[in-house]
Every structure is written in structure tokens, then in C-alpha cells.
Amino acid sequence: MMARKDVGSAGVLASTAAVLEAVSHYVGEPVARGLAKRSLAAAAAVHRATGFRVLTSN
Q1: Which residues make Cβ contacts (< 8 Å) with residue 28, sequence separation at least 6?
Q2: Which of 3-12, 27-36, 49-58 has the lowest mean pLDDT?
Q3: How remote is the C-alpha of 6 from its chain's centroid?
Q4: Stretch (H or E) spanning 21
Q5: What's the rounded Cα separation, in Å, for the pair 24 and 21?
Q6: Over the stretch 20-47, which tens digit does the pLDDT of each residue have?
Q7: Gap between the Cα atoms of 22 and 44, Å rounded
Q8: Residue 36 vs residues 6, 11, 58: alpha-carbon distances, Å
Q9: What pTM was computed for the model?
Q10: Does an H or E element contain 30, and which?
Q11: What mean pLDDT value characterizes the chain?
Q12: What's the CA angle centered on 18, arms 15 and 21, to 5 degrees?
């Protein structure tokens, strides 16, 4: 059974780039900070999506 804290990182890693890019930075940045304590890969995915969203915004 997966521990409760791992559900978030597994969910992030299973999400598509488009889904992560749709998340507001007001939500994504605190989530990434929390994930960085448990899963650097998941935190990096959120930060990458936030950065890509900034680059492609008008």
C-alpha cells in the first residue's frame, strides 16, 4: 500500500504535461515546495510545467 505522502508525488509524475501546465502558479509553487521534501522528480515536473506555461503565455 502506498503511503499517503507518496500519493501526491505519484499523481504528479503520472500527470501529462498539459495537465500540469494548466495548474496556476499560485497552486503549483507551494505544491512544488512541499514535493521537494519527498520527491525531487515530482517537484521538478511542477516547476518545469510552470516555467513552460510562462514561456508560452501571451
Answers
A1: 20, 46, 49, 50
A2: 3-12
A3: 13
A4: helix 17-21
A5: 8
A6: 889 888 988 999 999 998 899 999 999 9
A7: 16
A8: 12, 14, 29
A9: 0.80
A10: helix 25-36
A11: 85
A12: 95
C-alpha cell at 42: 515530482
Are 46 and 16 contacting, i.e. CB atoms less than 8 angstroms apart?
no
The answer to whether 42 and 13 have CB atoms below 8 angstroms apart is: yes
Cα(25)–Cα(51) distance, rounded to whole angstroms?
Answer: 9
Q: Give the C-alpha distances (Å, rounded to integers) separating 38 from 1, 7, 21, 52, 56.
A: 17, 11, 21, 23, 29
Identity at 6, one-letter amino acid code: D
The whole-angstrom distance between residue 50's C-alpha and the CA centroid of its chain comes to 8
Give 2's pLDDT tier (boundaries 50, 70, 90).
Answer: very low
